Amino acid sequence: MPGFKQQVRSGIDLVVGQQAVINLTLEVGAAAEQVTVTEEAPLVNTTLSSTSGLISQQQIKELPLNGRSFDQLLALNAGVVNNTSNMAGGAGGAFPAFSVAGHRQETNRFLLNGVDWVGGNATGQFITPSGASSQLLGVEAVREYNVLEHTYGAEYGKRAGGQVSIVTSSGTNDWHGSLFEYHRNSALDAKNYFEATKGPFKRHQFGGTIGGPLKKDKLFVFGNYEGFQQRLAQSTRTVYPDVQSRQGLLPCYLATPSACPPTADPAARAAFVPVPNLQRGMLPFANTFWPVPNGSEVYSNGLPTGTAYNYNNGVQKIYENFVMTRMDYVMSAKDSLFANYTFSDGERDQPQPDTYYTMYVPLRNQTFGLQETHVFSPTVVNSATLGWVRPFGASVTKPNGTGPAIPASLVYLAGGNPGAIVIGGGTTAASLTSQTPVPGNNPLFGIREYYSLGDDLRFTKGKHSTKNARIHLIRRY
Hints:
24 strands; mainly beta; 5-stranded mixed sheet; 3 domains; elongated; 11-stranded antiparallel sheet; Ferric Hydroxamate Uptake Protein, Chain A, domain 1
């Protein structure tokens, strides 16, 4: 501009979920003079009232992560609390659970390159993205992500919690790749209090990335693979029917309270006697559905209870294969296109307090996104996004083969798995009980399919900026 110095600003980094305002001050001077400003300070969001927290690429790549689950870094932001360790997950494993600005953990929304990222769950209770490993893998492929905590714009929403926007890495004009392997074991761990000998713990995480140009300055690809394998001892102490109760015998004070009142001789009250009116058909269940306890009798006020302790040495087995890919195509100076595909497949085998049973949880999640951006003018930009998500989850708790074969006469429904048995507790095996319940069930399946179509058109006129709404089409079954 005649009469003013030329000004150049560089070092400005526009991140996901941010609207930046950069104020330039023209200084009077000759046109030949130039003012260059580099290494800008972090931009302050002056256009929105929302509170957000960026997790940068440097933080993702350099900060330590136990299990390489990149969502753990959400807790770096004020108002975000990690509650993952308190979540049961509904079907055998925890899921990434964060309370954002006081909201419930399951109300957060995760967006992967603008498309809803949804996880599989057999019971359909939780949709937070997660695989069999209960981790958000793919840290090598995540460029950055941002969490909007509250009072965010109209293009967000759909759920009441935080809005987590994740952007994946793209290829460049140079080919780059990496290989990695992380190993963790129990070599330096102490023995669990309830273990006779230290149980196993072996975790392997391995994989690699590759990215580069298919056509220089035009077409780029990036791919990431990560494998997760784990064997983890989960030792517990449980309560099973003792040897005498499996024969129809209980302590006198329990079997016939009137014959052995509190004033009777303690030895007589503790003596095992036949249970009156016992249905003998119940005994095969006790002898088939529970292992014989390997611990001592459980006493109450110095008297036997008909139960005994069992010290379990179950081993949790997990595997997961995770793939994240992206392709970018620069069609012209005004048009660009990118597509990304994320795939996760694995299984979690969860030992149960009744060691004859194991919960098997296979999970498979797929996410595809396609986005085209067109610049009509310096003040009008349009982005169209197409998304497809298909999470699958299943769960079944059944005998694992370590116990005796269960005859068909003890199976509740012909052709199904042995059912649940609860003694002295609630109506389900998940309720508190006086004895370890039998947790058997038939398979549960949760299959959902989501389609989304969005169009964001932004107008800028002077000091004003307008952005249209997004359209979502969802199919679920």
